[in-house]
Each structure stands twice: as structure tokens, then as C-alpha cells.
Amino acid sequence: MLIVQILIIFIIGFVFGYFTFSIISSKNKSSKALKEELRVVKHEMEQYKQDVADHFSCTTKLINQISKDCNKLNSHMTNSSNYLIDSNFHLLESLNKDN
């Protein structure tokens, strides 16, 4: 009878231990999956931050280039208009002298 009681207690302990281990093991698997997901999301966030930084760096370079081009255009327009005004003025003077 004592052996049967010990055997029943052993079986109950084994079943209890098995279920406890299963619960803890599933929590560890879930925890590992969450940690992996967190690692992936952090990596994606870092990549996104780098992409945003690259975008603004490129945008800054393009805006600087546009500014330089606008300055060149302004200078060209100023020089051309001055030249054309002077040429027109000289042409009008010569026409007035002829009259």
C-alpha cells in the first residue's frame, strides 16, 4: 500500500511538473518571440531614421544647388538687362543724332 501511495504521489508530482514546465516553456517561447520582434522593429526604426536623415541631407544639397542656380540666373538677368538697356540707349542716341 505504501508503494502505491508513493507511486500515486510520484505520478501526481510528475503531471504537475510537466504542466508547470509546459506553461513556463510557452512563456519563454513567447518572450523569445517578443524579444525577436522587438529587435526587428528596433532595426527597422534605425533604418527609417537613417533614411530620413539621408532624405534631409539630399534635400539640403538640392536646395543649395537651386539657390546657386537662382543667383546665377539673377546675375545673368541683371547683366543682360543692363547690356540691353545700354545698347538700346546707344541705339536711340544714334537715331536721335541722325534726325
Automatic annotation (TrEMBL):
Keywords: Cell cycle, Cell division, Cell inner membrane, Cell membrane, Cell shape, Membrane, Transmembrane, Transmembrane helix. It holds the Pfam family ZapG-like. It is found in: Cell inner membrane. The chain crosses the membrane at residues 6-25. InterPro entries: ZapG-like. One of its GO terms (biological process) is regulation of cell shape. It is a single-pass membrane protein. Its main location: membrane. GO terms for cellular component: plasma membrane. It comes from the Bacteria. Belongs to the ZapG family. This is Z-ring associated protein G. It comes from Paraphotobacterium marinum.
